[in-house]
Structure formats: structure tokens, C-alpha cells
Amino acid sequence: MRLRVLGAVATALGVLAAGVRSPGQQAPRGQPATYFAYLTLLDRRGAPVAAVTPADLTLRAGGDTNAEIERLAPASEPLVVTVLVDQCTPAVMEMRDALKAFSKALAGQNRIALVTVDGPPTVLVPSTSDVAPLVAAIEGFRRRACLGLNVIEAIRDSYRSTDIVNADRPTVVAVVGHGNDWSHDDVSPVLNEMQDGRASLFVVRYLPEQSSAAGEQSHLAALLIEGPALTGGLRFDLLSPAGLRSQLLKVAAILAAQHRVEFGLGKEPPWNRPFRLQASATQAGFRVLITGARRVSP
After folding, report:
1. Pairing relation of β-strands 34-42 and 122-128?
2. Helix 218-231 to helix 151-160 angle, to the nearest 10 degrees?
3. Is the pTM here over 0.90, yes or no?
4. Which residues are CB-contacts of 30 (< 8 A; sequence separation ≥ 6)?
5. pLDDT per residue over 146-183, tens digit each?
6. Measured between alpha carbons, how far is residue 229 from residues 9, 102, 139 in Å?
7. Selecting from 3.90.1150.10, 3.40.50.410, 3.30.470.20, 3.40.50.970, what CATH number does the domain 79-255 have?
8. Whose CA is closest to 181, among 209, 155, 161?
9. Residue 70: what pLDDT?
10. Quick one: pLDDT at residue 141?
């Protein structure tokens, strides 16, 4: 059953379908398997918590199987982020400022790729830890006239890309305005791929008051609402482009505050079948964003 939880709704529960699929990662017979995932704990204001302990969390797998936290520490693996950007928006100046701030906040230890979605998805900057080519490409942004977006296709392609598939901490960030999408009418296969993957999706959407989210195409709305919920991300809708910078910096802070959690299961799920990983916060009003889990290689 497809999960229908709004990624931006304030909830203390994060639910992910964690695919356990690679026979090469099977634990030795008689030895319990260890899994890992990445999570961020958000406080009542939605701000990331820097220091997280096992006492702050409860993990369950399969709904009723307790997961024992074996190790919890700030994530040290580099982030691999694909940023999808729409140059059709009238808020190009605000978009440039926001994307430069986001790139400078994360580049260096992490890798960022820049892809445009107005027209066929086009890689402007391949994945890099060097902020210079990112800033140069962003400063070259100009508003473009376009008849439609290809957000859905770009998200699907990002989840299939080797950068995302092979990364320990993959993330897709879509920064888009309001417009029709030419990609696909049926997003169910795309949502299924996202649910089976491990990359979180964050959406920052500038929706002028005269073009509210209610006017979105149903298939595009489904992806941009359900996608973040399925993958441990969030969606932010803005009525003013002035908020683009602060919201993208908030996404950067959430990603930078990720912790890696390693856990074991009291009862192993059936081999080669996904299980639902649930992470809840022990403090009222706090919530957990958690990515898909996978086995720790023996």
C-alpha cells in the first residue's frame, strides 16, 4: 500500500519502506544482520537537533518488531545532492541568491550536481565538491520562456543516476515554481522507485498566491507531496520568492545535521522483501526524518 503522509505535516513519526535486496549483503547464517539509515531529529520549531542520543528515538521495523539501536553518531559520509532547478520562474534573482547560499553551505566535504528542469532535464554542473563551478553556473541563470516543466522526469532520472544509486547519503532537492509538467501522467512507477530507493526528496516550491498548490496538475501534485513523505524529506511552499534563501538554508541545515543509526532486528524480515522502518521521537512535538535502510556489509 502506498503511504499517504504529507512530508511537511508536523508529526513525530517517520515511516520508510526499506528495501533489503542484495544477496551479496546477506549476513552469515546464525549471525544477526545489522542495518543502517540516516535520520534527522527536528524540534518543535522544525529546527534540526545537533546532538541526538538513542534515548531520543524509538525504531520499529515491520510495524511491531523492535529495532535495537546499536550505534548512533553524526553522519560522516559525504552528502551527494542533486539540485533540480526551474529557470522559468520570474524570481530568478532570488533563485540565484538562494542556490548560491545553499551551495556554499554544503560544498567542500559534500558533492552537489545542478540540473535544469525547464525543458528536457539538462545537467548544468556534474556532481562536484568544488563550489566555484556551481556558483559560476548559478550566476549565469536568466529567466527563460518555456511551455512546460519536466520535474517528474528529472526526479525519476535522478533516482536512477549512478551518483544517487551509489551514494551513502543521497538527496534530491527540487527548487521549482508553478507550471505544467510534460513528463508523465502516471507517477505511480516513479513513487515506487523512490520508495525502494534511499534518497530523500526535498521540495522548495515558489507558488504565487494567484497560482496556489490546488491548481497543480494532479500527477505533479501527487509526486511533490507524496515523494518527500515516502523518502524522509520535506516540502516547503512559499508565497513570496523572498523566502527561497532561508528555506534552502534550512534544508542544508537539516541535511548537515543527519545522524547515521545502525540497528539490529529482534526478528529478521523475510529475505529479499522490503520492511517498513518507523522512527518516532520520544519528546512530544519532535519528529524524525529518516531515509531508507540497508544492511551493513559483513
Report:
1. unpaired
2. 30
3. no
4. none
5. 667 788 889 999 999 988 988 989 999 999 877 677 77
6. 9, 22, 32
7. 3.40.50.410
8. 155
9. 93
10. 86
